[in-house]
Amino acid sequence: MKYWLIKSEPDVFSIDDLKDSPSGITSWEGVRNYQARNFMRDEMKKGDLVLFYHSNCNPPGVAGICTIEIESHPDLTAFDPESRYFDPKSHSDKPVWFLVDVKFASKFNTFIPLEKLRSKAELQQMKLLQRGNRLSVMPIQKTEFDTICEMGK
DNA sequence: GCCAACGTTGGC
DNA sequence: GCCAACGTTGGC
Questions:
Q1: Which residue, A6, A15, A21, A133, could crosslink A26 as a Cys pair with Cβ 3.0–4.6 Å?
Q2: Three-state SS for A98?
Q3: Please, where are the H alpha helices in A25-141?
């Protein structure tokens, strides 16, 4: 099993929006970064555990946990000219963009702000904390996942 | 709202 | 294939 962190702007889609989705499941649409896509397309497996991070808000931080429910399939919003995620390079016979479906698992009792993550010695290696990091889907270590879950209790 | 960091685009 | 220009991300 692998461990991941995904970012979302809560103004756009928050962990409560995920919780309120039908069956707590949503397609993680709109990712338009190749590295992030490759993680979703090639490496995320059903049952993997995922931290849900709120970005571009005050304060940013980890809000809870979800799981991979459905493995890689094409991101249909790329085919839709009306969608803000439309990409004319992607065609249904040869899709460029892929996504996974994630399922709500739990919300932390304590929201963990970025500042708290930065202050933890065990988390200093996390990609999330590296300067200039912009990846919205990234792998994390089990030890990091466990540390953050403990902080969120 | 600013701006540093990074990814993508496109001319050459 | 290089690299300048541009657009986006996301913390602050």
A1: A21
A2: strand
A3: 34-38, 114-118
Nucleotides of strand C under 7 angstroms from a protein beta carbon: 8-12
Q: Tell me the mean pLDDT in the region A107-128.
A: 95
Does residue A131 reach within 7 angstroms of strand B, measured from its CB? yes
Q: What is the CATH number of the domain that holds A37?
A: 3.10.590.10
| pLDDT tens digit sequence for A40-60 | 999 999 999 999 999 999 999
Its domain, for residue A70, covers 3-151
Predicted local distance difference test score (pLDDT) of residue A123? 95
In terms of phi and psi (left: phi > 0; alpha: psi -120 to 50; beta: otherwise), the region of A6 is beta
- Which residues in 23-42 of chain A line strand B, with CB less than 7 A from it? 33-35
pLDDT tens profile A18-34: 999 999 999 999 999 99
In chain A, the number of structural domains is: 1
Q: ∠ at Cα A30 (A26, A36), nearest 5°? A: 95
